Amino acid sequence: MNPIERAKQDWYPIAIVNDPRRPKFYATRVLGRDIVLETKMDGSVSVLSDGEHWKTIEAYDHIWTTPSENPRPLFSIPEASERDRRFVPCGVVHVRCSPLRAVENFLDIAHFPFVHTDILGSEPHTEVVPYKVDIDETKDEVIATQVKFFQPQAAKSANEGIVTEYTYRVPSPMNAILYKTCPTRDDVQDVITLFVQPLDEDNCAVWPWMALYDEESSMADMVEFQQLIFLQDRNILENQIPKRLPIDPKMEIPTRADLTSVAYRRWLKKNGALYGALTHAVDQRAG
Amino acid sequence: MNCIGVGFSDTLSNARVMRAFVNGKDVVVWRSTSGKLSAWENRCPHRGMRLSHGFVRGESLACMYHGWHYGVDAKCKYIPAHPDLEPPETIQIQRYSSFEKNGIIWVSDAQDAKAPMIADGLTPVRSLNIHCSANFVKNILAGFRSPSPDGDQIVFHVTDEQEDFMRVDVPKIKTALYFIFQNLPNSKCFLHVLAGGLCEAHAKKTISRGLEHLRRTAEKQFGEET
Amino acid sequence: MEFTLYDYALSGNCYKIRLFASILGVDYEKISVEFHPSADHKSEAMLQVSPAGTLPILKTDEMVLSETQAMLFWMAKKFDRSGMWWPKDDNPVAQAFVLQWLGFSGDLTATIGQARLNSLFQTPIDKDKIIKASVVALRRLEAHLTEQSFEQKKFLAGVSPTIADLACFPYVALSGDVGAGFGLEHDNYPAIRNWIYEIKSLPGFIAMPGIFEMHQLKDHEIDPAERFRAKG
């Protein structure tokens, strides 16, 4: 199956549910196709692309669409039904990079001391201790567990540095979910996600979302924290070459700290989920 | 194959990094803390991050993404995620040759490239970025006229030309100007302009403003023709 | 707490005040306002605080300010005894130069600032026009900084930094956020590139997302790359 056919089978986020600032006709792109999201007076929505209607659903505070008549079901996030959590859609940010690069960056921790300095990591606490990565065969997802890192300010609610433990879950090629130690409670985990809308193979929009147990911070503070983290990553994402994610292991050099990204790249290849990937060693400058 | 002038020596201080384009290639040019100059492919082999956003520590250039440190021999020396791991020799960056002469930083992707023969004792004046090709600018240089602050005109007379280099006499300011051309992607270029001999602030200002006039003229014509 | 700042972490204008406060060592109360996605700075509640409907807003018991140039001026007068950040009254020429480049900072917000918002959040703009105007603004700054360097002056209004430098710095430093290929990258402007290094080296400098930290300035006992030398 060619990459575009595989990509068409998934759902993609394109808007926040009930966003009062969204115009009646909102134009965007998915998988290289121009689409228009129409919001009717009663709040219902429809998506039109080149005369064709695309299916839409609402999930996790976002509107999702797909070009497929028979798409794969959207992945589930059980924590989304825990109503005592605070649900925070953080707003879209556009970034000129492959959607796969955006996901892979979300899964990486070795960059914390350098990119999210004094927030998610700081020198000299740069070591990445071994962690576990598996493929959940039933759900066909990449899972990384026991990922530990010392963080000066792990979340808006954190008052001091702690060793945070993370679990990463990649439930579909362009979405990633992070479960992390909640700074204020040790019986639950905070959930942070990155939903990625692929405009083209080298251009995407990210829709970060959170389901948290933070009772103290204002909504503005929580949104701002997540946006701040993503904007720091954006500076990296727009400066990686080649733009598309190299799947050929010879093109980039991983270390043991990169187990999740290695597993992610291999899993993408196995699934033919190569929209946004570079599958053969080309002159990287052309990427 | 010629060397490409990418900027003036005195605009790249110790422990600083800049980006340059050399024959269409994206190059990181940097100085270690002790002043050693290096020019490499502008890409960290770990996850492809541009090294020109990196930072210098001691004699190493570190990548901004994961902090991988590279020594002046372009080999990886330190990987912060694995502080006790001695990085394998194979992790290294492709190097270009670079050297400094006549107050200019020269970079080449060929082994034995030489800088053009230009005079000694020059004073760097301005590196000007122009939105048209170097060849287009060269064609405009000959006989170019610009108003001088005293209401007169300064006139350019081309007196020497080599690949990527022109010497221009400017009788009004009693000095020669040396133009080093550097092609950039998308039909743009850099002009690195030096003056012959000493050149005090007032003269530099006149030259700098004359160059801006040159740029306006070149870009207007280029815009009309394309 | 010397003042209250209504702030947004991703705003270059808000960053001017956060940066100056850090350099001056001044404590303030920060209230986050959600600029995106909900545009709370234009909510009825915020318009009661400041009818301008913009960020940042600086508030004390005596005043509410909505223009960053005014905020920087007030902070310099109130907290800086040295007369460096805003020249003393016996030097009106120096003050005029600072005002000139403070005024120019408004051009940068209106051009590069707008291009950046469009690049991040797809706010509607006349992109070609704004990009061209951004290049014109950067070239003007490059020409001025180059001419300053002819007289060994590293900053906009002289040999020392002033509030004009802080006002112009954010959107210039963030011009890369607009994206590649528009002519706004710093590698096109060597004088600007060096000026950015100078500002980032000032004591008390803090970064914001889009502006890389100066990791090179952190103290390290050994160059970590040297740790394997003995084995070699």
Explain how this protein is built.
The complex is a heterotrimer of chains A (287), B (226) and C (232). Chain A is of the alpha+beta class. Chain A has a single domain (84-286), classed as Naphthalene 1,2-dioxygenase Alpha Subunit, Chain A, domain 1, CATH 3.90.380. Chain A is built from five helices and 16 strands. Chain A has helices at residues 3-7, 99-107, 112-115, 219-237, 259-270, and strands at 12-16, 25-30, 33-39, 45-49, 52-59, 62-66, 86-89, 93-95, 132-136, 141-151, 162-172, 175-181, 189-200, 203-212, 245-246, 277-278. In chain A, strands 7, 8, 9, 10, 11, 12, 13 and 14 form an eight-stranded antiparallel sheet that branches. In chain A, strand 13 and strand 14 (203-212) form a beta hairpin. Chain A is globular and about 55 Å long. With 226 residues, chain B is mainly beta. Chain B has two domains: 4-108, Rieske Iron-sulfur Protein; 122-225, Alpha-D-Glucose-1,6-Bisphosphate, Chain A, domain 4 (2-Layer Sandwich). Helices cover 15% and strands 41% of the residues of chain B. A six-stranded antiparallel sheet of chain B has the order 1-10-9-4-3-2, with no helix packed on it. In chain B, a hairpin with a 2-residue loop joins strand 5 and strand 6 (60-62). In chain B, helix 1 (134-141) packs across helix 2. Chain C is mostly helical. Chain C folds into two domains: 4-79, Glutaredoxin (3-Layer(aba) Sandwich), CATH 3.40.30.10; 92-202, Glutathione S-transferase Yfyf (Class Pi), Chain A, domain 2, CATH 1.20.1050. Chain C has a four-stranded mixed sheet. The mean pLDDT of chain C is 94. Chains in contact: A-B, A-C, B-C. The B-C interface holds B 7-8, 11, 13, 15-16, 18-20, 52-53, 55-60, 62, 64, 67, 69, 71, 77-78, 80, 83, 86, 126-127, 129, 131, 186, 188, 201, 204-205, 208, 212 and C 143, 146-147, 150-151, 181, 183, 185, 187-191, 193-194, 197, 212, 214-216, 220, 223-228, 231.
